[in-house]
Amino acid sequence: MGDPFLFNFADYVVEWTSSPSIKWLSSGPFLSETTIESNRKITWKVKNVRNFALAGSKNFQVKKLQFENTTVSIALTDQDKFEEIIDIVNFSFPLFQTYFGQLPYSNVAIVETGRDTNFALEYPNLAIFSKDMYINNSN
């Protein structure tokens, strides 16, 4: 039978052209940015991952947390949720490092999507969750 989602590890250099108003997070660290006419061309580079993912929105607000050699970028559309998500990351990321050690990647990203989309998806260095996860969540 086999795994239908089996991917080999590869190195990626991804160039993406978009409106300058869109904030992007990806599986790899930012490498460069140039302006072509009225668009922005961004390049990311990452080694030894199974695939590459991008998530972007003009409504994203992005905050970054630093843990030793890893930057965790968080993209949300609701400023009021940052404290909750930052608390979760500040608890879970060091716990992960305690049990599994330092990640071999310098950047990881957490991205919030709209309601009634996906509930949660995981890609190399990029975790996506829906606003639906906040429902019935008490602080």
TrEMBL record:
Q: Which domain of life is it from?
A: Bacteria
- Output this protein's name: Uncharacterized protein
Give the organism the record lists: Lederbergia galactosidilytica
